[in-house]
Design a protein that fits this description.
This protein has one domain: Ribokinase (UDP-N-acetylmuramoyl-L-alanine:D-glutamate ligase), CATH 3.40.1190.20. Helices cover about 30% and strands about 25% of the residues. It contains 9 helices and 16 strands. It has a 10-stranded mixed β-sheet, sandwiched between helices. A hairpin with a 5-residue loop joins strand 13 and strand 14. It is globular, with a radius of gyration of 19 Å. GO terms for molecular function: 2-dehydro-3-deoxygluconokinase activity. It is an enzyme of class 2 (transferase). Keywords: Kinase, Transferase.
Length: about 350
């Protein structure tokens, strides 16, 4: 069996996908880097400790962003390390289905990270249990990744989850950001702090070493305060991040209070779109994916923010980690309302 992608046909075997000789030489719009896991969820209303069957989905911050950008018409590659096993092929096959080109290092005798998600309902919260230590990705090294197209990409993206997974992953993240920056490839980074992975002080030390090579930063308001120590209104956080780390564009997300973008001498604000929530997991990734997709199309910050907010709202109506959306659906939400403010 072969899989047809935007780069040609690939056989459904592990190691053959690592071969780039048949890939046409052209610029990739977006390259992302990170771990993708299997998500195991009990049916709605059932508990993890009593479930007898799980719903299975594929999810990871950087691949979620890759999927949405691909669905919005961009050429996208996802860099990672996965086990050469049916589970690894489950992940790569899912990404190909959405037009993403998996550029992976296939690991032998290793494991795929998983996480368990038990949906809550008031007054019981949602429970997430990670099982990702010692996964194939934890031992990732840049030298084993097929990064040929990185230097010709338009944009490179990763998130703060990735360096928190292991020392090797942190080293690889730093190297890839540095290589992209050295090649004049624009870089984007989402702080995306996860307290289950590391403490704020350790995360801050790592983030500060990475931000010198970041051109476009996404920073949840709570992460900017808890990890980087930037208290005060979101506008002040964005200004401080842009100034202190010499970052061209800073987007600060504020949950239900919307988001803002500091770019040049202007600040753009965006409210949230009303939505019914079926599954909130992946909302932040949908926001980032929507913003980057429009950014790659040359949109201004106000337009990118509006499409980011609309993508995030629509994601909450969809089960699973990935925002399975069309550009037309997102545009319809944007056209129907929303608030952008430039000052």
């Amino acid at each position: 069996m072969t899989f047809r992608t935007s780069h040609g046909e690939f056989p459904e075997t592990g190691h053959a996908i690592n071969t780039l000789s048949n890939i046409d030489e052209h610029m990739t719009d977006l390259v992302t880097f990170g771990e993708t896991m299997l998500r195991l969820s009990p049916p709605q209303g059932q508990r993890l400790e009593a479930v007898s069957a799980f719903d299975v989905a594929v999810g990871g911050a950087e691949s979620n962003v890759a999927v949405l950008a691909s669905r919005f018409g961009h050429e996208v590659r996802w860099l990672s390390r996965v086990p050469d096993s049916p589970l690894g092929r489950r992940v790569t096959g899912e990404l190909r289905r959405h037009g993403v080109d998996p550029a992976v290092d296939w690991a032998e005798s290793s494991r795929l990270g998983t996480y368990y998600l038990e949906h809550g309902a008031e007054p019981r919260g949602t429970e997430v249990v990670y099982d990702r230590e010692h996964s194939a990705f934890a031992d990732v090294t840049v030298s084993e990744l097929p990064i040929d197209e990185l230097e010709t990409a338009e944009l490179f993206y990763t998130s703060g989850i990735t360096p928190g997974l292991s020392a090797a992953a942190a080293t690889a993240t730093e190297q890839l950001l540095r290589e992209a920056s050295a090649a004049d490839v624009r870089t984007a980074f989402d702080l995306n702090y996860r307290r289950k992975l590391w403490d704020p002080a350790t995360a801050r030390q790592t983030f500060e070493s990475l931000l010198a090579d970041v051109d476009l930063l996404f920073a949840p308001e709570r992460d900017a305060a808890a990890v980087l120590g930037l208290s005060g209104p979101p506008t002040e956080q964005a200004t401080a991040l842009a100034s202190e780390y010499d970052i061209e564009t800073v987007v600060v997300t504020q949950g239900a209070d919307g988001a803002l973008c500091h770019h040049g001498d202007e600040v753009f604000e965006q409210s949230v779109y009303e939505t019914e929530t079926i599954d909130p997991i992946g909302t932040g990734d949908a926001f980032v994916g929507g913003f980057l997709a429009r950014h790659l199309h040359g949109a201004d910050p106000a337009d990118a923010l509006a499409h980011a907010a609309a993508s995030a709202a629509l994601k909450r109506t969809i089960s699973g980690d990935q925002a399975i959306l069309t550009p037309q659906e997102v545009q319809a939400v944007v056209d129907d309302g929303g608030t952008e403010i430039s000052r």
